[in-house]
Amino acid sequence: xxxxxxxxxxxxxxxxxxxxxxxxxxxxxxxxxxxxxxxxxxxxxxxxxxxxxxxxxxxxxxxxxxxxxxxxxxxxxxxxxxxxxxxxxxxxxxxxxxxxxxxxxxxxxxxxxxxxxxxxxxxxxxxxxxxxxxxxxxxxxxxxxxxxxxxxxxxxxxxxxxxxxxxxxxxxxxxxxxxxxxxxxxxxxxxxxxxxxxxxxxxxxxxxxxxxxxxxxxxxxxxxxxxxxxxxxxxxxxxxxxxxxxxxxxxxxxxxxxxxxxxxxxxxxx
Length: 270
Ligand SMILES: NC(=O)c1ccc[n+]([C@@H]2O[C@H](COP(=O)([O-])OP(=O)(O)OC[C@H]3O[C@@H](n4cnc5c(N)ncnc54)[C@H](OP(=O)(O)O)[C@@H]3O)[C@@H](O)[C@H]2O)c1
Description:
Layout lengths: L2 E7 L7 H11 L4 E7 L5 H10 L4 E4 L4 H6 L3 E2 L1 H6 L4 E5 L2 E5 L2 H12 L7 E5 L3 H12 L4 E6 L3 H9 L7 E4 L8 E6 L17 E9 L7 H9 L4 E3 L2 H16 L6 H9 L1
Parallel strand pairs: 1-2, 1-3, 4-6, 7-8, 7-10, 8-9, 10-11, 11-12
Antiparallel strand pairs: 3-5, 5-6
This protein binds NADP nicotinamide-adenine-dinucleotide phosphate.
NADP nicotinamide-adenine-dinucleotide phosphate binds next to α5, α6 and α9.
């Protein structure tokens, strides 16, 4: 029987995951189907049991379920615990094992783009779920400085405390960034979804500095425009991260890492 996989979320119609995984399957000659399943938050525990009963081999999890799903897994990987969120489920006999491929996806995309972290001064804007998933891998890559700034000033403080066993995270408000200089600025806010960007002091980028937005499509435009006004040497959006984190999930399920270049090109062309 053909192995079945799916992404669950609410809403889910916009998800690019079925397209990405179908192409991964073709490129690695794997026999599988990949569905998109709309799961209402109220029915999440029931839906997870039902998808298990129906024989699904693995699931991707997107908003708003990433945090709640972690509580419903029989076990959770260390990186998913660190992130406090699960985006990949692997079938085991008695339920689902949770993992999180977001941090790995970002690091692979930064490597693909040639963006260095080691020895660099790195600023992360935002302190939500995505940031929880990327702080561990960013710290492991040994930046010279890792600053997290956010609209709600309490969240970076809490993250600095939570991640202190993995390295130093310096909490700041956006206003307090004035006078700082960074080699890389990562926008991990969701402000772009409403066409905005947090208000930032000018001259935050060092000469030759780069910008990366975890968002993609129209949501990445406000930060792209800001990066242009700041004379960023390079800018990239998060479409590459989306594809890389999907490839990491695929590799966890199928034991083979799919090539990502053609999928990324196909998504850009759409
Ligand atoms: N490329 C990928 O594969 C990938 C993976 C994961 C996430 N993402 C993207 O990353 C972004 C963040 O996702 P998330 O899951 O972390 O969301 P989240 O948990 O809802 O956090 C949202 C963050 O954005 C900040 N924010 C929202 N609106 C803002 C505004 N108008 N001004 C200033 N700050 C604002 C919030 O600040 P407060 O704390 O002050 O509210 C918070 O820090 C989303 O756009 C998502 O699509 C991409």
